[in-house]
Amino acid sequence: MDHDEAREIKSQLAGYARELAERSGAPGIEASGVPDDAARLVRAPTLAIGLAPREDGYAIAVRYRLGVPTARSIARRVAAEAGTGVDVRRTGRIRALGERPRAAARSGRPDGPDVRPPVVTALAAGETGRVRPLRPGVSIAHVDVTAGTLGAFVRTTTDGTSGSVLALSNWHVLAGSPAAQVGDVVVQPGAADGGRAPDDRIGTLAGLVPLEAGVTQTVDAALALLDDPDVDPTYPVGRVTTTAVALGGEAVGKVGRTTGITAGRVSAIELDDVVVGYGDELGALRFDDQIEVESTGAGPFSRGGDSGSLVYREDGVALGLLFAGSESGGANGTGLTYCNPVGTVLDRLGVTLLG
């Protein structure tokens, strides 16, 4: 089926899936389709539904989570309704791929103890040490967050930081808590890799798209205003300065703090109702219009700490901002990765990629 036809069928099936979930007696499912709290959202047999690429166009992508009662049976009924044009996969639990703030390791605020967190660089294949000038793929984080990845360098012309160089990553990497404030210290490497203020300060939190429980999200993104604009904006494919909308099936890559350089394929686009775990403070959040990537190598495309990585095509065009993943699923069973469309990220933050 073509793109327009697939979108129309997807919309119909999404309503059908919600109706089936409500009939199942799933706790917390309201008439709006939005569960009334995060714990119930995790238990609810919600399906993520989007578009999966095929040689002759698109199939309907249906994703269900292991360990959720009735989710598999609902996925089968939705697949039967879709007919032959369907791609059903199980994902396991999907989580934001970065560590949560640790109260015992708060080192950047005057009212917190100055405790240096443990160094865990031996577990990572990517850049976990101190890197100057800064470059994409290195460990970075809010001073009270363990570690994530510096995804890209950007500029903004919409506020007082006009013309300045900023680092792009995820909200849960550069902010990490609803209590985070513009002006908070950002360090490189992240605290989990030994970074601390003031020695490893590279800038401050400058902007973010807030995440809020009970609200459907589209991006997990934030910016750090850099103290030193002298950066190295090159990737394994060279400079990435342009963006495109993911159409599905693209060969992609990323460079991340944990798994380094990996290769994958866009296995689904326009996925709605992707439920992502964010730990105790936010619980689980629902995301719409997301991109799914599966690994084309022997290992995973991403792991915890790769959050914030820019996902780009082989020709150096950016498609997405990596933020979440599952530990199971995908062609090789090592998990599926989820990304925000990069155009949406840049629009929400009011920035453009550094030219």
Features:
355 residues; alpha+beta; 6-stranded antiparallel barrel; 33% strand; globular
Topology overview:
Layout (H helix, E strand, L loop, with lengths): L2 H21 L14 H6 L4 E7 L2 E8 L6 H12 L3 E5 L3 E3 L42 E4 L5 E2 L2 E5 L8 E5 L1 H4 L10 E3 L13 E8 L13 E5 L7 E2 L2 E2 L2 E2 L7 E6 L3 E13 L1 E4 L6 E4 L2 E6 L14 E4 L3 E10 L9 E6 H8 L1 E3 L2
Parallel strand pairs: 2-3, 14-21
Antiparallel strand pairs: 1-2, 1-16, 4-21, 5-6, 5-9, 7-8, 7-23, 8-11, 9-10, 10-11, 12-13, 15-16, 15-20, 16-19, 17-18, 19-22, 20-21, 21-22
Helix pairs in contact: 1-3
Proportion of strand residues: 25-35%
Q: Give me the number of helical elements.
A: 5
Rg over CA atoms, rounded to whole Å, is 20 Å
Q: Could you say which overall geometry the principal axes of the C-alpha atoms support?
A: globular
The low-pLDDT segments are 27-36, 100-122
Helix proportion of residues, in percent?
10-25%
**What is the rounded distance between the termini?**
38 Å
CATH architecture of the domain at 103-232: Beta Barrel
Plain-language structure description:
This protein is an alpha+beta fold. β7 and β8 form a beta hairpin. Among the domains are: 1-90, no CATH class; 103-232, Beta Barrel (Thrombin, subunit H), CATH 2.40.10. The relative contact order is 0.17. α1 (3-23) packs antiparallel against α3 (71-82). The chain is globular and about 60 Å long. The chain has 5 helices and 23 strands. It has helices spanning 3-23, 38-43, 71-82, 171-174, 342-349; strands spanning 48-54, 57-64, 86-90, 94-96, 139-142, 148-149, 152-156, 165-169, 185-187, 201-208, 222-226, 234-235, 238-239, 242-243, 251-256, 260-272, 274-277, 284-287, 290-295, 310-313, 317-326, 336-341, 351-353. The strands form 4 sheets. Strands 6-5-9-10-11-8-7-23 form an 8-stranded antiparallel beta sheet.
